[in-house]
Design goal:
alpha/beta, Rossmann fold, seven-stranded parallel β-sheet, 31 strands, 33% helix, globular, binds adenosine-5'-diphosphate, binds zinc ion
């Protein structure tokens, strides 16, 4: 018998399939991970088929050395997903397998964690020994009783209770014997279990009823605080009790102990957690528990969509509009599309939940592709908190050039006096966004990337947010020698500093990429805030999502315009979503909340709609605009990004690809809305030059054009120049 094996060679861009002989006595099936001879080395591979014949010359055939696990590690369900990834995103099988398997499993990086347990082999012998023990040998008695009762106990645990000397004696007598055991490392052992006794609201009941009795794809549009999590858990419970499994995805950032605590409380050990904050060993163990069917519910960030669960009953994607569901580095994919495929091919229900669905998803609900479920009221029956728009140019005209408007300052004072909490949101980390010379207009830039540097006060350094380069601060303009160097826009650090001056006796916490570098860094900050150890939390969009802080009554949005001015067709949508999400943090418990939004464009329609929480109105206006201008979901954007260290080569390659596309376009004119080629907005990152070909195509032509583009790029692969396709990219930098 022969096996076709995909070998795992890191740098290879194409799948390498080789046939190997299966040695006598070894059972091999599709999905097994095996070691095979390859050149002079031995490498890992995945068996994709087992055959009775091979076309390879028998003299050239080599034999599989051994298999790495007894059971296949790639399931049939995953093979199907792999074909989908190939078809939709041109991702090769080898790359798919890398997505499916924990990285620490490859190249044998992690060994099973083995701990020593003590157990009793011969019960009658133990009982006899027990009967002969002196009455005062209480430690030995205790140890024997404990092991008799539990079957086996960790040696370290037993030693703590009964002392090492008692154990040594018992082992010497042969009463207790050592037994190595694989111990699974469980992340979040210390998570507090929060099981609330909850009576479902009529709306929740109705929604759960439909989600458990019908199949298909649902869009659950529920305002912030409407109790969506409770709905998810009830639907999962229903599926589990019918012998099925569940995948629940949340944005990486909202994987808080609170969410996990909720799930652990309800489902105990049958929950597995997958996200990037786990240690290598923890992730590996969680994955094993899923593979072996011990864990029936997977909670995780986007890559958990690839989890090896069998018998899938439901996939839930919370905060479905969140940008983190689109993978923007290789391999590039859209989690919702994969979830839709998995749900359909495995007969599961798909639930997309959000207070501010993406325009694309809502459009599908409006056109009948998704079923729309709505939860319009908060569980606490309180109205959504009032949102006040403050005109910052007017503040300036009236003599206040500070960071905080008079409204926000007095609201902060009130909040602090009444012992409540406030969250201040600013969509920029660091201190000031850039350093600029007032005389000549020079701006501090990164030497490897065409972007401005950001000043970080704590380190008194300038940093590039694209590549991480650090620079010393300039006192003198390197261009003209002037000393009047001015800081540009505001960042989180600056806001914190201003607050400290305004409220010297108030404890303030800050949460952004800089304060959450350590493992569990953001958990620490969130916990402190929840426990009321600080009254104000300043942060970037990290604080916008999902968190449930009962003490928060005031939310301030310092500079709402930041996201509005982003150069993407999603700028308005993002701004609406961000405001709604941030605003949703206030007044969640029995206290009422208020929101203050500071802007230089107070009459912008987005702010008006957001202040009324008017999603349908927003959808109507925005989808109209997209239809007229032919942007998603009314067209598909393809961006081909070409990059490399030699600008000339990059330009040549871009030109080659572009020429092929223009040829294709000539025969398919009616499907193209736009086609153009240019330098990317950020012309250089990490010293690689970047060019792009941008196109928008009508839905009719999409499939064919995609296929053509994949082929064109495959044909144009080269050593020094990388090129890849992005489909409806989230940002176009
Ligand atoms: P959402 O995800 O829709 O913003 P959550 O699921 O976080 O809302 O619910 C908001 C709060 O209301 C949570 O603290 C949750 O425990 C609570 N909650 C949910 N359903 C109920 C209910 N039926 N009765 C009382 N409290 C509830
Ligand atoms: Zn840089
Ligand atoms: Zn200057």
């Amino acid at each position: 018998m022969f096996a076709s094996v995909i070998v795992d060679i890191a740098s290879s861009q194409v799948d390498k399939v080789f046939d190997y002989i299966i040695p006598d006595g070894l059972t091999i099936s599709r999905g097994n991970r095996v070691m095979v001879p390859f050149g002079k080395r031995e490498i890992e591979g995945i068996v994709i088929s087992v055959n009775e014949t091979t076309r390879v010359d028998s003299a050239k055939l080599k034999t599989i050395s051994h298999k790495l696990e007894d059971i296949p590690v790639i399931s049939e369900e995953q093979f199907k997903v792999a074909s989908f990834l190939k078809e939709e995103y041109n991702i090769g099988l080898a790359d798919s397998f890398r997505l499916f398997l924990p990285s620490e499993m490859r190249l044998g990086k992690v060994k099973d964690l083995v701990a020593v347990c003590l157990t009793i082999d011969d019960e009658s012998k133990a009982k006899e020994y027990l009967s002969k023990l002196k009455a005062n040998a209480t430690q030995q008695q205790g140890a024997i009783y404990a092991v008799l009762e539990e079957g086996k106990v960790l040696q370290s645990k037993l030693a703590k209770r009964f002392g090492q000397s008692a154990l040594s004696k018992l082992k010497k007598e042969g009463v207790l014997v050592e037994k190595p055991e694989v111990v699974l490392r469980s992340p979040y052992k210390g998570v507090k279990i929060l099981d609330k006794n909850i009576t479902l609201t009529p709306t929740q009941k109705m929604v759960i009823e439909r989600l458990t009795s019908e199949s298909g794809v649902f869009l659950l549009h529920g305002v912030t605080g409407s109790g969506k999590t409770e709905v998810y858990m009830n639907v999962i419970k229903d599926k589990i009790s019918n012998g099925k499994t569940a995948i629940m995805l949340v944005p990486e950032i909202s994987l808080t102990p609170q969410v996990l605590g909720n799930f652990r409380a309800r489902f105990g050990e049958s929950v597995a957690i997958l996200h990037s904050g786990l240690s290598a060993g923890e992730r590996f163990d969680e994955w094993k528990r899923i593979l072996f069917g011990e864990a029936k519910i997977v909670v995780g960030a986007r890559s958990a969509i690839f989890a090896p669960v069998k018998n899938l009953g439901v996939i839930i994607i919370d905060e479905e509009h969140d940008g983190s569901y689109v993978s923007e580095s290789n391999p590039r994919y859209n989690t919702i599309e994969i979830a839709q495929f998995r749900a359909q091919s495995e007969g599961a229900t798909l639930v997309l939940g959000s207070a501010t669905p993406s325009l694309e998803s809502y459009h599908k609900a409006m056109t009948g592709e998704y079923k729309l479920l709505e939860m319009k009221e908060r569980v606490n029956a309180k109205a959504l908190p009032p949102l006040k728009i403050v005109d910052m140019s007017r503040e300036m005209r009236e003599g206040n050039s500070g960071v905080f408007s008079r409204d926000l300052t007095s609201a902060l004072e009130r909040t602090i006096e009444s012992g409540n909490q406030a969250m201040l949101f600013i969509n920029r980390r660091g201190y000031a966004s850039f350093l600029m010379c007032k005389e000549c207009g020079w701006v501090a830039k990164c030497k490897d990337c065409d972007v401005s540097l950001v000043y970080h006060r704590a380190e008194n350094a300038l940093k590039c947010h694209y590549c991480g380069n650090r620079y010393k601060v300039f006192d003198v303009c390197p261009n003209c020698g002037s000393k009047s160097i001015k800081q540009g826009l505001l960042g989180t650090q600056k806001v914190q500093q201003e607050l400290e001056e305004l409220f010297p006796n108030v404890k303030i916490l800050r949460m952004d990429n800089d304060t959450t570098q350590t493992k569990d860094g953001h958990l620490k900050i969130l916990n402190e805030f929840r426990e009321g150890k600080a009254q104000i939390l300043v942060g970037t969009q990290m604080i916008a999502k999902g968190h449930d802080f009962p003490g928060v009554t005031l939310v301030g949005i310092i500079d709402a315009d930041v996201s509005l001015h982003q150069s993407t067709y999603k700028a308005c949508e993002r701004t609406f979503q961000l405001i709604t999400q941030v605003a949703g943090r206030a007044g969640r418990a029995d206290k009422s909340g208020e929101i203050i939004l500071q802007t230089y464009a107070p009459r912008h329609y987005i702010y008006n709609m957001a202040s009324h929480y008017d999603y349908p109105m927003f959808y109507k206006k925005e989808s109209n605009a997209r239809e007229v201008t032919a942007f998603p979901p009314f067209a598909t954007i393809f961006r081909i990004l070409v990059s490399g260290e030699n600008e000339e080569e990059v330009r040549e390659k871009t030109k080659d690809i572009y020429t092929e596309i223009t040829d294709y376009q000539k025969d398919n004119k009616e499907n193209f809305v736009y086609l153009g080629v240019m330098k990317s907005p950020i012309g250089r990152i990490q010293n690689k030059f970047r060019y792009q070909i941008l196109m928008r195509v009508k839905p009719n032509g999409e499939k064919a054009i995609k296929k053509f583009l994949f082929e064109t790029l495959d044909k144009n692969k080269s050593q020094n120049v990388i090129s890849f396709i992005e489909i409806n990219p989230q940002n176009l930098s």
